[in-house]
């Protein structure tokens, strides 16, 4: 009896391994923890934002004063490696639950804006690849939480905010304002980088909150029923940005239902190089235990 009780408790603890947070940035081989490049976290750092119109969507829940954060230099055109973890900033820590399917998106904004106004431009997006049936979150898990994000080569030098985002869609067949226990989950945090080199461009910006609506096809999406493509929410990536999803780049069109088809061709296609790092080498993917289609109700509402 005691043994089976223990095993039930262990199962529950495993299921709770669910959320994620941006634990550090690695730039030119230097690993920068929280407080250096990354804004400090509130008490509960791995919790998602659930309201698309909340000020928390800018840089995460309960953003604390960012002035003390050391901005980290990055050469334009080079990669920042962002690393996500569930509990702590250790390479062996869990990344995010396999049940959490969804895209990864990065934006930048001039630092002087503090993230307010029409200032955010999308520099990176990776959604769903139908040919491999792989989400960006699957790649994150396979790559120990790491993702390489190229800073656009033509960006004007200066101080910027870098906003990392992972969207988990396991409950996204519901809209959060209609069902307070469900909805898409936005794992969001901001870093401070100083771009060196580069050119003279500051791409057109958009407001965050403002880039997403509850009815966007990439925000209101059912991962538990068959689908062939996924449209990443938000604006298209900026010039020199990176889009790793075929035919499903960010869009600002009016919302469509999941049943209607997403744009068939991509206009960004040749604009960028694919993600480097060991992610590209991860050819064989083991099937996760959550990969079978299950009814949404079998997932916890985290
Ligand atoms: C944000 O602040 C509220 C009020 O103090 C608190 O209840 C909540 O847990 C905080 N959230 C995080 C993610 O720390
Ligand atoms: Cu979670």
Automatic annotation (TrEMBL):
UniProt-annotated location(s): Secreted
Protein origin, superkingdom: Eukaryota
GO molecular function: cellulase activity; cellulose binding
GO cellular component: extracellular region
Bias kind Polar residues: ranges: 241-252
Low complexity: bias regions: 253-277
Keywords, ordered alphabetically: Carbohydrate metabolism, Cellulose degradation, Disulfide bond, Polysaccharide degradation, Secreted, Signal
GO biological process, one term: cellulose catabolic process
InterPro entries: AA9, AA9_LPMO
Residue intervals of the Auxiliary Activity family 9 catalytic domain: 19-225
UniProt keyword Mitochondrion, yes or no: no
Residue segments, region Disordered: 241-302
EC code(s) of this entry: 1.14.99.56
Catalytic activity: [(1->4)-beta-D-glucosyl]n+m + reduced acceptor + O2 = 4-dehydro-beta-D-glucosyl-[(1->4)-beta-D-glucosyl]n-1 + [(1->4)-beta-D-glucosyl]m + acceptor + H2O
Signal peptide annotation: 1-18
Broad enzyme group: oxidoreductase
UniProt-listed CDD domains: LPMO_AA9 (cd21175)
Protein name (Swiss-Prot/TrEMBL): AA9 family lytic polysaccharide monooxygenase
């Amino acid at each position: 009896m005691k043994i089976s009780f223990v095993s039930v408790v262990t199962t529950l603890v495993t299921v709770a391994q669910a959320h994620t947070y941006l634990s550090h940035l690695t730039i030119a081989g230097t690993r920068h923890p929280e407080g250096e490049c990354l804004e400090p976290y509130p008490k509960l750092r791995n919790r998602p934002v659930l309201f698309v119109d909340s000020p928390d969507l800018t840089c995460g829940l309960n953003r604390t004063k960012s002035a003390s954060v050391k901005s980290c230099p990055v050469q334009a055109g080079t990669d920042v490696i962002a690393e996500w973890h569930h509990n702590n900033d250790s390479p062996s820590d869990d990344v995010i639950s396999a049940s959490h399917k969804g895209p990864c998106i990065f934006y930048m904004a001039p630092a002087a804006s503090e993230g307010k106004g029409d200032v955010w431009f999308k520099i990176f997006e990776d959604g769903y690849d139908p040919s491999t049936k792989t989400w960006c979150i699957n790649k994150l898990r396979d790559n120990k939480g790491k993702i390489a994000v190229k800073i656009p080569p033509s960006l004007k030098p200066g101080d910027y905010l870098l906003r990392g985002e992972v969207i988990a869609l396991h409950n996204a067949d519901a809209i959060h304002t209609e069902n307070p226990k469900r909805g898409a989950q936005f794992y969001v945090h901001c870093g401070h980088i100083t771009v060196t080199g580069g050119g003279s461009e500051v791409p057109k910006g958009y407001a965050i909150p403002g880039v997403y609506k509850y009815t966007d096809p990439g925000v209101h999406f059912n991962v538990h029923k068959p689908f062939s493509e996924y449209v990443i929410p938000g604006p298209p990536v900026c010039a020199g940005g990176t889009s790793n999803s075929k035919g499903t780049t960010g869009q600002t069109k009016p919302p469509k239902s999941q049943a209607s088809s997403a744009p068939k061709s991509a206009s960004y296609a040749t604009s960028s190089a694919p993600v480097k790092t060991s992610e590209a080498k991860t050819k064989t993917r083991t099937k996760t235990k959550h990969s079978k289609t299950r009814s949404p109700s079998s997932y916890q509402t985290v």
